[in-house]
Write a structure and sequence with these properties.
Layout (H helix, E strand, L loop, with lengths): L18 E5 L28 H13 L4 E5 L9 H9 L6 E6 L4 H11 L3 E5 L5 H8 L4 H14 L5 E6 L8 H10 L3 E6 L17 H12 L21 H4 L9 E3 L9 E5 L5 E5 L12 E4 L4 E3 L8 E2 L1 H5 L4 H13 L19 H4 L2
Parallel strand pairs: 1-2, 1-10, 2-3, 3-4, 4-5, 5-6, 6-9
Antiparallel strand pairs: 7-8, 8-9, 10-11, 11-12
Length: about 375
């Protein structure tokens, strides 16, 4: 309960949750090794997926408890038929301030304009490599060129800036860091490097495979110049770069520009850096080495209607029977409140007590 008497989704550590991540499907058209098995994936029966009307109801109830930001995820959300219809439904709910979507981009060229017209304003595109061969090693599928087409279609539809999420894995993606830095320099794209997390379907994650944020930063500094303190920089528009195409940005360049720390939203998962001349932005999500649990304001609902108060939760709250039964909205609100109250202080990846969730990433929702 807030000071004004309005109920909020507040846990026992005082964290207020206003950010709901909604998985619309567990299906995907690629097979990234850090997310799902290569073959023989057992997807949910379609009748188990929440309907658009059920998702809309969950969001309306959530808004009454302080939810004002949404992110649609999967699986791959763009394989869910008629997704722009859901976006439009959610965008019209009073109190929703922001709707984002995370996609692998393969189907984005076909849907970017429809999503924009429906009310989507922010896009995160998962792209772990700017080399087609490395892309295939990560995804175990083809599709690199389609992702590039999707990014250009999103840009043409008016999405700006676009964020690229790149999972960084030791022994696989080190040589992609500088090309991604150059990409950030040459386009409006914001590149965010994410430490490899223990959410793979085969439970093969090892700490030794994590390419840590500080190592990524060191490589960027070696290529583009040292960090400069924010107070020494000349204030400039941080996104005043030329909006070149993604393919053009991959041409070699000798340009050097220091990275500048940005004062960011304290609840955001990424530590952001900006090139000193304002051309390009980098984000580092250090989920393993520097967890952001203390400021976490997000929770999740899976495609089959399970509330998860943390990405690494071992427990879930099943509200699908409430949605499909005769339960009043208040019963669902109480389930949300109870789920958040039960949230732990942190995910404990860096302790001996850590247990990997049974659900891999594709089944949870990113």
């Amino acid at each position: 309960m807030s000071e004004s008497g309005v109920r909020t989704l507040t846990d026992t550590f005082g964290r207020i949750h206003n950010n709901l991540r909604i998985s619309v499907t567990d299906r995907c058209n690629i097979r990234c090794f850090y997310c799902m098995p290569a073959d023989d994936v057992q997807f949910l029966p379609r009748e188990d997926l929440l309907t658009f009307e059920e998702i809309e109801r969950v969001v309306r109830i959530g808004v009454s408890l302080g939810i004002n930001r949404l992110r649609l995820t999967g699986g791959e959300p763009l394989v869910r038929r008629d997704l722009p219809i859901l976006v439009r439904k959610l965008a019209q709910i009073p109190g929703i301030l922001d709707i984002g979507l995370t996609t692998n981009g393969i189907l984005l060229a076909e849907q970017a304009q429809q999503l924009r017209d429906a009310g989507l304003r922010r896009l995160n595109i998962s792209l772990d490599a700017l080399d087609p061969e490395v892309f295939r090693r990560v995804t175990r599928r083809d599709g690199y060129e389609k992702v590039l087409e999707g990014i250009e279609a999103a840009r043409a539809a008016g999405f700006s800036p676009i964020k690229l999420n790149a999972v960084s894995v030791r022994g696989l993606t080190e040589d992609q860091i500088v090309p991604f830095g150059q990409l950030a320099r040459e386009t409006h794209t914001i590149v965010r490097f994410i430490e490899f997390m223990p959410l793979d379907a085969d439970s093969q994650w090892q700490r030794e495979k994590v390419l840590f944020a500080h190592e990524i930063l060191e490589r960027l500094q070696a290529a583009f110049g040292p960090l400069r303190p924010i107070e020494s920089a000349v204030a400039e528009d941080s996104m005043a770069a030329d909006s070149g195409s993604l393919l053009e940005s991959q041409k070699p360049s000798q340009a050097r520009a220091s990275l500048l720390p940005i004062v960011a939203d304290s609840k955001a998962p990424a530590q952001d850096f900006e090139f000193l001349d304002g051309r390009g932005r980098i984000g580092l999500i250090a989920s393993v080495s520097q967890p952001f649990c203390r400021s976490c304001n997000r929770f999740r609902i899976t495609a089959d209607g399970k509330l998860r108060n943390c990405l690494f939760s071992l427990e879930e709250t099943d509200i699908r029977p409430l949605l499909r039964g005769v339960a009043e909205d208040e019963a669902i609100a109480q389930a949300m409140l109870a789920s958040i109250v039960a949230k732990k202080e942190g995910h404990e990846i860096n302790t001996a007590k850590f247990l990997q969730p049974d659900r891999p990433m594709y089944s949870i929702g990113g």
